[in-house]
């Protein structure tokens, strides 16, 4: 199945107004939402205005926001047990996707290590990807797995980072043959993790892989 942005924009409006008729408070600051606010996102205009869009579209990786401007929402989601924040993050990614049309057949996500998923109680990108797929109608592939507990290390050079993470993922499943894949992650820094994922996904011969992240550091 292929979905293009224009059709999706119309559908998205219908879905969002049916599923989220009333946002009540802003997910970020807790302020009560005004009727004119963007209730579909449940983020008030002030908080949304603080999110700094990534200007550079030349990168291989598409990203919505500069990390510093969305750091609080990302950290609250991943590390402060606010698992419900998957919803506004996913909805912002769907909105970006609808505004920047791409031909996509299937969605994948960068999975958590088992250790991190246990600590959080959920796989943070799995929740986002499921919501993304629910809203877009695109199928979700869960075949990408993390085989090591590798995590981002602050004092490691980009080259070391690429080598460390290179073989950290496997893909099981052959359902990507000739398909256009959208690979979702929350944050891109060196790009090493996304490269390693693309390498693993390549084993099932997709036609293309486009990476989309919520934030860029
Ligand atoms: Zn707010």
Question: How does the SSE layout of this entry go?
Answer:
Layout: H1 5-19, H2 45-50, E1 61-66, H3 67-79, H4 86-99, E2 106-109, H5 114-120, H6 124-136, E3 144-146, H7 158-165, E4 169-171, E5 180-188, H8 192-201, E6 208-216
Parallel strand pairs: 1-6, 2-5, 5-6
Antiparallel strand pairs: 3-4
The protein binds zinc ion (ZN).
Zinc ion is lined by residues 26, 28-29, 31, 43-44, 46-47.
How does this model look, in words?
With about 220 residues, the chain is of the alpha/beta class. It has one domain (about 55-215): Rossmann fold (3-Layer(aba) Sandwich), CATH 3.40.50.2020. It contains 8 helices and 6 strands, in the order H-H-E-H-H-E-H-H-E-H-E-E-H-E. It has helices at about 5-20, 45-50, 65-80, 85-100, 115-120, 125-135, 160-165, 190-200; strands at about 60-65, 105-110, 145, 170, 180-190, 210-215. The strands form 2 sheets. The protein has a 4-stranded parallel beta sheet, sandwiched between helices. The two termini are about 35 Å apart. About 35% of the residues are buried. Zinc ion binds near residues 26, 28, 43 and 46.
Oligomeric nature of the chains = single chain
Largest sheet data:
4 strands, parallel
Compute the number of helices: 8
How does the helix and strand content classify structurally?
Answer: alpha/beta
Number of strands: 6
- Mean pLDDT level: 85
Rounded Rg: 17 Å
Distance between the termini: 33 Å
The CATH top-level class label: Alpha Beta
Order of helices and strands: HHEHHEHHEHEEHE
- Which compounds are bound in this model? zinc ion
How many separate structural domains?
Answer: 1
Query: From the 3D coordinates, which CATH architecture would you assign?
Result: 3-Layer(aba) Sandwich
Strand content bin: 15-25%
Shape: globular
Into which percent range does the helicity of residues fall?
25-40%
The main sheet orders its strands as 1-6-5-2
Quote the CATH topology.
Rossmann fold
- Which runs of at least 5 residues are low in confidence (pLDDT < 50)? none
């Amino acid at each position: 199945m292929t979905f293009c942005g224009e059709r999706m924009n119309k559908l998205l409006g219908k879905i969002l107004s049916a599923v989220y008729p009333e946002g009540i408070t802003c997910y970020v600051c807790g302020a009560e939402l005004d009727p004119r606010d963007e209730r579909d996102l449940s983020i008030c205009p002030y908080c949304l205005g603080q999110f700094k869009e990534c200007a550079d579209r030349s990168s291989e990786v598409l990203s919505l926001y500069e990390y510093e401007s969305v750091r609080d929402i990302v950290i609250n989601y991943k590390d402060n047990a606010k698992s419900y924040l998957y919803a506004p993050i996913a909805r912002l990614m769907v909105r970006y996707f609808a505004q920047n049309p791409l031909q996509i057949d299937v969605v994948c996500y960068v999975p958590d290590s088992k250790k991190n998923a246990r600590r959080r109680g959920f796989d943070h990108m799995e929740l986002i990807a499921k919501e993304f797929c629910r809203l877009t109608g695109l199928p979700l592939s869960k075949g990408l797995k993390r085989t090591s507990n590798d995590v981002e290390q602050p004092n490691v050079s980009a080259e070391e980072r690429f080598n460390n993470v290179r073989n950290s993922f496997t893909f099981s499943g052959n359902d990507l043959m000739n398909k256009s894949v959208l690979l979702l992650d929350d944050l891109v820094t060196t790009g090493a993790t996304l490269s390693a994922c693309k390498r693993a996904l390549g084993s099932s011969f997709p036609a293309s892989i486009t990476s989309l992240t919520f934030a860029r550091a």
